[in-house]
Amino acid sequence: MATTLTTSRSDSPPIHPLVQRLKAWRSTRIRGQRIPEELWKAAVDLARVHGLHPTAAALKLNYYGLQRRLLGGRVQRKRRVTPAPFVELAPPAMPCGLDERGTLEMVKASGARLSLRLPHASPKDLLPLVHLFLRHRS
Predict the structure, then answer these.
(1) Distance separating alpha carbons of residues 92 and 18, to the nearest angstrom
(2) What is the DSSP track for 23-70?
(3) Band of pLDDT at residue 127, cut at 50, 70 and 90
Protein backbone atom coordinates (compact mmCIF):
# COMPACT_ATOMS: atom_id res chain seq x y z
CA MET A 1 0.00 0.00 0.00
CA ALA A 2 1.51 3.31 -1.07
CA THR A 3 1.66 6.23 1.32
CA THR A 4 0.55 9.49 -0.20
CA LEU A 5 0.59 13.01 1.08
CA THR A 6 -2.98 14.23 1.55
CA THR A 7 -2.19 17.85 2.36
CA SER A 8 -1.93 20.03 -0.69
CA ARG A 9 -1.59 23.74 -1.16
CA SER A 10 -1.77 25.54 -4.44
CA ASP A 11 1.56 27.33 -3.92
CA SER A 12 3.40 24.33 -2.41
CA PRO A 13 6.08 22.40 -4.27
CA PRO A 14 4.75 19.09 -5.64
CA ILE A 15 5.82 15.99 -3.75
CA HIS A 16 5.34 13.40 -6.51
CA PRO A 17 8.50 14.33 -8.49
CA LEU A 18 10.63 13.90 -5.34
CA VAL A 19 8.98 10.55 -4.63
CA GLN A 20 9.99 9.44 -8.13
CA ARG A 21 13.55 10.80 -7.75
CA LEU A 22 14.02 8.97 -4.45
CA LYS A 23 12.56 5.79 -5.96
CA ALA A 24 14.99 6.00 -8.88
CA TRP A 25 17.94 6.71 -6.58
CA ARG A 26 17.04 3.79 -4.29
CA SER A 27 16.84 1.39 -7.23
CA THR A 28 20.39 2.23 -8.40
CA ARG A 29 22.20 2.93 -5.16
CA ILE A 30 24.99 0.88 -3.70
CA ARG A 31 24.12 -0.71 -0.35
CA GLY A 32 25.11 1.59 2.52
CA GLN A 33 25.29 4.69 0.31
CA ARG A 34 23.84 7.82 1.87
CA ILE A 35 21.00 9.83 0.32
CA PRO A 36 22.45 12.71 -1.74
CA GLU A 37 22.33 16.13 -0.13
CA GLU A 38 20.22 17.59 -2.95
CA LEU A 39 17.46 15.06 -2.22
CA TRP A 40 17.61 15.86 1.49
CA LYS A 41 17.34 19.59 0.74
CA ALA A 42 14.29 19.00 -1.44
CA ALA A 43 12.72 16.87 1.32
CA VAL A 44 13.40 19.60 3.89
CA ASP A 45 11.70 22.17 1.64
CA LEU A 46 8.65 19.93 1.39
CA ALA A 47 8.63 19.31 5.14
CA ARG A 48 8.52 23.06 5.77
CA VAL A 49 5.32 23.26 3.72
CA HIS A 50 3.57 19.96 4.40
CA GLY A 51 4.87 19.07 7.84
CA LEU A 52 7.52 16.72 9.13
CA HIS A 53 5.57 13.47 9.60
CA PRO A 54 3.54 13.55 6.37
CA THR A 55 6.65 14.31 4.33
CA ALA A 56 8.79 11.63 6.00
CA ALA A 57 6.01 9.06 5.54
CA ALA A 58 5.32 9.94 1.89
CA LEU A 59 9.02 9.94 0.97
CA LYS A 60 9.81 6.91 3.18
CA LEU A 61 12.56 8.81 4.95
CA ASN A 62 13.80 8.50 8.52
CA TYR A 63 11.66 10.88 10.59
CA TYR A 64 14.48 11.89 12.94
CA GLY A 65 16.98 12.37 10.14
CA LEU A 66 14.56 14.70 8.38
CA GLN A 67 13.78 16.47 11.67
CA ARG A 68 17.48 17.07 12.34
CA ARG A 69 17.96 18.55 8.87
CA LEU A 70 14.78 20.61 9.14
CA LEU A 71 16.00 22.13 12.41
CA GLY A 72 19.48 22.72 10.99
CA GLY A 73 21.13 20.09 13.20
CA ARG A 74 19.60 21.49 16.39
CA VAL A 75 17.51 18.64 17.79
CA GLN A 76 16.58 19.28 21.39
CA ARG A 77 17.14 16.30 23.63
CA LYS A 78 15.53 15.61 26.94
CA ARG A 79 17.75 16.36 29.88
CA ARG A 80 18.74 13.47 32.04
CA VAL A 81 17.55 13.81 35.59
CA THR A 82 20.39 13.08 37.95
CA PRO A 83 19.20 10.91 40.81
CA ALA A 84 19.53 12.16 44.32
CA PRO A 85 22.64 10.81 46.03
CA PHE A 86 22.19 7.83 48.30
CA VAL A 87 22.97 8.49 51.92
CA GLU A 88 23.61 5.54 54.17
CA LEU A 89 22.44 5.97 57.75
CA ALA A 90 23.19 3.76 60.69
CA PRO A 91 20.01 2.04 61.86
CA PRO A 92 18.68 3.18 65.21
CA ALA A 93 19.03 0.85 68.16
CA MET A 94 15.94 -1.33 68.26
CA PRO A 95 14.49 -2.82 71.38
CA CYS A 96 14.29 -6.59 71.30
CA GLY A 97 10.66 -7.00 72.28
CA LEU A 98 8.95 -10.04 70.73
CA ASP A 99 5.65 -8.34 69.91
CA GLU A 100 7.08 -5.34 67.99
CA ARG A 101 6.45 -4.87 64.27
CA GLY A 102 9.19 -3.38 62.08
CA THR A 103 8.38 -1.09 59.14
CA LEU A 104 10.78 0.21 56.54
CA GLU A 105 9.68 2.57 53.77
CA MET A 106 11.94 3.80 50.94
CA VAL A 107 11.19 5.97 47.90
CA LYS A 108 13.52 6.39 44.91
CA ALA A 109 13.82 9.61 42.92
CA SER A 110 11.99 7.82 40.08
CA GLY A 111 8.96 7.36 42.34
CA ALA A 112 9.47 3.65 43.00
CA ARG A 113 8.43 2.77 46.53
CA LEU A 114 9.39 -0.05 48.88
CA SER A 115 7.42 -0.70 52.04
CA LEU A 116 8.41 -3.58 54.29
CA ARG A 117 6.36 -4.58 57.29
CA LEU A 118 8.05 -7.59 58.83
CA PRO A 119 7.49 -8.64 62.42
CA HIS A 120 10.64 -9.28 64.40
CA ALA A 121 12.97 -8.25 61.55
CA SER A 122 16.41 -6.94 62.35
CA PRO A 123 18.31 -4.50 60.13
CA LYS A 124 20.54 -7.39 59.03
CA ASP A 125 17.43 -9.24 57.77
CA LEU A 126 16.25 -6.25 55.73
CA LEU A 127 19.61 -5.33 54.20
CA PRO A 128 19.50 -7.81 51.24
CA LEU A 129 16.01 -6.59 50.31
CA VAL A 130 17.14 -2.96 50.43
CA HIS A 131 20.16 -3.73 48.22
CA LEU A 132 17.95 -5.51 45.68
CA PHE A 133 15.54 -2.56 45.60
CA LEU A 134 18.35 -0.03 45.10
CA ARG A 135 20.01 -2.06 42.31
CA HIS A 136 16.83 -2.55 40.27
CA ARG A 137 16.20 0.21 37.70
CA SER A 138 12.68 1.54 37.67
Answers:
(1) 72
(2) HHHHHHPPTTPPPPHHHHHHHHHHHHHH-HHHHHHHHT--HHHHHHHH
(3) confident
Instruction: Domain of residue 23: give its range.
Output: 16-70
State whether 103 and 65 are in the same domain.
no
Element housing 106 (H / E): strand 101-107
- Do residues 85 and 135 share a domain? yes
Non-local CB neighbours of 77 within 8 Å, separated by 6+ positions: none
Tell me, yes or no, if the pTM score tops 0.85: no
Whole-number Å distance between alpha carbons of 17 and 55: 13
Is residue 123, in this structure, part of any structural domain at all? yes
